[in-house]
Amino acid sequence: MHPKNSLQTIIILYIPVLFSYFLVNSPVVSYFVAWGGSLFIFYTTWFSPAAYYDHSIPVYKQIMRPIFLTQFIFAGFMCSTSIFYFMDHLGYRYLTELNYGAQFKESEQTDLIATAQRLSLLAHAAMTSGLILAMNPWKKKEKFVQAFQNNDFLIWLGIIVFAIGSVCQQISGLSQIAIPLTTVGISCAAVLFVKGVLHKNINYLAIGATIFILNFIHASLSGYKEPIIINVIVLACVFFPYYKKTIMYLALPAGYILLYFLPTYNNTVRQSWSGEISAEEAQSQAFTNLNQNNETEIEETNWGFLTRRLSEMEMFTQFIDYVPEKHNFYGWEIIVDSFEALIPRVFWPEKPNMETISMQRVYDAGVAYKTSTVSAKTRPVVDAYLSWGIPGVFFCMLIYGLLTQYLCNVAEEIFGGYELGCVIIFNSIFQTLWRGNNFEFMFNNIFYGFIIMWALFYLLKTLKVLKPLYG
């Protein structure tokens, strides 16, 4: 039986949070309790008798809803990946002890890491609480349905959004509209790809595979890891309901390949950023490097990626060391800047550059330097901490969860259910919620994403792609 009272589930989530704070004087133990606490929350919300979601539908048919996919990516990235940085701090690399015979001694950094992990766990519990509070698994959501009986509407939707996105991309200042619309088109292609395989429909397969593969190739030339990983996640999630065992069998080897080869591959591709060689030439050189017997170099690059790029724990500890010891909490300052970011520059030509403003606190804390080419933007939990400390983390992440689930609810309601509303619309337009961003950029993405979602709904309704479910 699934619990009717969401409060029962929410209370359970804070058990590991309390234990980690009881052990505050033993930072190593406190860290591991906090780290394991996130695994406990995953178990509680997905597999335990207290799990609160629509149990009338199999999990594999709702895997892209926030309680599953968003929580997995956000909390997995924020909480679970820190284990590599902490093991490195303890003197281990790939589970091999480096300082043989040397006894580990706790330091100020140990305490900072434990503090950051406790805050991350609190953020995880608060965000998940918000998701559960805004969820109503037993309410009929759909108000509109797809007007076409088959999957041709995906082709039309893909064409419409790609056309609008392409036009917006050519107009200065409209990239924030072009990017989410293009992402919707890519999600349509992924779903079409799956439908083509499932129903042996050559048209769906050809259109979906072509768009998706071209986008994957473009992502592989960018020099960034995230677009490649996102493409793999999207494809795995849309295939999962139909090919569960295959995806589960492929998950570990695919994850290993990505984590083992991708950092070295991308580091080589980034040579094209200087303009001295093309992206295609850099890609060819990257494959050559991977084919060579340079295992030591790959492992060195990967360990640096796992400890300081996949995990942002080191940056978080620097912010905790900086605030409030060397700088007072920011209070409403970051929030005010974030609301100012919503004003279009056409109405405020002198509007400050939000990239410069958001990076200033990064420079002030010594997390990065102005001469550095590394992107070190804060994440929601960091901005919440910088603003109001522990209470800020709890309340900001609670609102984050409430808002995330609310946006998914609206998307499913007006776009006719899970596949179009959640899989394609919500997870494309609001993809920034998967990992979060600094407040200035995230407020902007969510606000204009909400407008784009409703504009797209009225357009599809006008074009009869969507029709009312009742009447």
TrEMBL record:
**Mind listing the UniProt keywords for this protein, alphabetically?**
Membrane, Transmembrane, Transmembrane helix
Q: Does the keyword Transmembrane helix apply?
A: yes
List the transmembrane segments: 7-24, 30-54, 66-87, 153-172, 178-197, 204-221, 227-243, 385-403, 415-434, 446-466
So which domain of life are we looking at? Bacteria
Recorded hits in NCBIfam families, A to Z, give: XrtY_assoc_Wzy (NF046084)
- Please state what the protein is called: Oligosaccharide repeat unit polymerase
Q: Which organism is it from?
A: Pedobacter paludis
